[in-house]
C-alpha cells in the first residue's frame, strides 16, 4: 500500500482518472480495514516513541485537500495515542499582515520540525500555488516560480535531516457535497462550515488543474506526494497510517543507549 499511492517524479497526473475510493487497492471490507488501521496505529505509537527518544531525525507530514477533504479527521484519527510532546500540528490560514510582508516560505520555515519531532502541516506552503493561483491573489509571474522555490526549500529540509511525506486527500465533488450537507444538518458542525466553502466549490475544476500541476511539479525524490483515495475515511486512515509507519520503520529509530553501566545500580 505504501507505494501504491506515491507519485513518481516526472509522472503525469490526471486526477479525474485517479480513484477517490479504496476499492481498487484494497480487497477487505470496512471492518477489516479498521482492525488493520488500529494495529498500524499501535505500531506508529511505538515508532514515534522511539523517534522522539532518539532525538536525531525530523519528520514533516504535509496534508492538503479540498474543503471537507478530511485533513482534520486524518490528524485526529491517525495520531490518536502518540506522545503529544513529540508531535505538533500547524494549521495554515489566510496569511496575516506580518506574514504577507515576508516571503511565502517565512511562516513555514519557522515551524519546520527540529530533531526528534514530527510536525504535521494542515494546509501548507502549497496554498501559495493553489488558492492563490485559483483566485488570482498574485499574478502567474509570482506563483509559477514557487514550484522551484518550494522544491529547493524542501531539498534544504531534506539535506538537513528532515524526512518529508506529502499527502493529497483526493475526494470526489459528490463526497464534498455530502460532507457539506452533513455539516449543515448538524448544528454542532456548523462551525466547520463557511459560505466561502461554497464559493470555492464553484472553482472545483480550476482547483483540480492547480492540484495536478502542483503534484507534477513538486513530486521530487526527496519529498514525494501521495494521492490518497479519501472518499472512505476508513481507507484513507489505513493508507496514510501505513505510509507513515513504513517510513518510520525505514528510519529505524533507536532508543538512546547510556554509557553508564546500569546493571549493578541499586536505588537506595
Ligand atoms: P476546515 O477544512 O475545517 O474548514 P480549513 O483549513 O479550511 O479547515 P479555515 O479557517 O476554514 O480552515 O480556512 C483557512 C483558509 O485559509 C483556507 O480557505 C485556505 O485556502 C486559506 N489559506 C491558507 N493559506 C493561504 C495562503 N497562503 N493564501 C491565501 N489563503 C490561504
Ligand atoms: Mg474551511
Task: Please provide a written account of the structure.
The chain has about 270 residues and is α/β, with parallel strands linked by helices. It has a single domain (about 15-250), classed as P-loop containing nucleotide triphosphate hydrolases (Rossmann fold). The chain is about 45% helix and about 10% strand. It is built from 11 helices and 5 strands; from the N terminus they run H-E-H-E-H-H-E-H-H-H-E-H-H-H-E-H. Strands 2-3-1-4-5 form a 5-stranded parallel sheet, sandwiched between helices. The protein is globular, with a radius of gyration of 20 Å. It starts with about 30 loop residues before the first helix and ends in a 17-residue tail after the last helix. The mean pLDDT is about 95. The structure holds adenosine-5'-triphosphate and magnesium ion. Adenosine-5'-triphosphate binds near residues 71, 72, 123 and 194. Magnesium ion binds near residues 67, 194 and 197.
Amino acid at each position: 500500500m505504501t507505494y501504491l499511492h506515491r507519485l513518481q517524479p516526472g509522472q503525469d497526473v490526471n486526477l479525474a482518472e485517479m480513484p477517490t475510493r479504496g476499492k481498487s487497492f484494497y480487497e477487505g471490507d470496512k471492518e477489516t480495514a479498521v482492525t488493520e488501521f488500529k494495529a498500524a496505529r499501535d505500531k506508529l505509537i511505538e515508532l514515534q516513541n522511539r523517534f522522539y527518544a532518539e532525538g536525531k531525525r525530523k519528520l514533516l507530514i504535509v496534508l492538503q485537500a479540498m474543503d471537507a477533504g478530511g485533513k482534520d479527521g486524518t490528524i485526529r484519527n491517525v495520531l490518536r495515542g502518540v506522545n503529544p510532546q513529540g508531535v505538533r500540528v500547524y494549521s495554515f490560514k489566510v496569511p496575516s499582515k506580518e506574514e504577507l510582508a515576508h516571503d511565502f516560505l517565512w511562516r513555514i520555515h519557522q515551524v519546520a520540525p527540529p530533531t526528534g519531532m514530527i510536525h504535521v502541516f494542515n494546509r501548507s506552503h502549497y496554498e501559495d500555488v493553489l488558492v492563490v493561483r485559483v483566485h488570482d491573489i498574485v499574478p502567474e509571474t509570482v506563483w509559477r516560480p514557487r514550484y522551484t522555490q518550494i522544491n529547493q526549500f524542501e531539498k534544504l529540509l531534506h539535506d538537513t535531516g528532515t524526512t518529508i511525506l506529502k499527502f493529497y486527500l483526493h475526494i470526489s465533488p459528490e463526497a464534498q457535497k455530502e460532507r457539506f450537507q452533513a455539516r449543515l444538518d448538524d448544528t454542532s458542525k456548523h462551525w466547520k462550515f463557511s459560505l466561502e466553502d461554497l464559493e470555492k466549490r464553484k472553482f472545483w475544476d480550476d482547483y483540480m488543474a492547480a492540484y495536478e500541476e502542483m503534484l507534477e511539479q513538486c513530486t521530487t525524490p526527496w519529498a514525494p506526494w501521495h494521492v490518497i483515495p479519501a472518499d472512505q475515511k476508513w481507507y484513507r486512515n489505513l493508507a496514510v497510517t501505513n505510509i507513515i509507519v513504513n517510513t518510520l520503520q525505514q528510519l529505524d529509530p533507536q532508543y538512546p543507549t547510556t554509557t553508564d553501566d546500569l546493571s549493578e545500580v541499586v536505588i537506595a
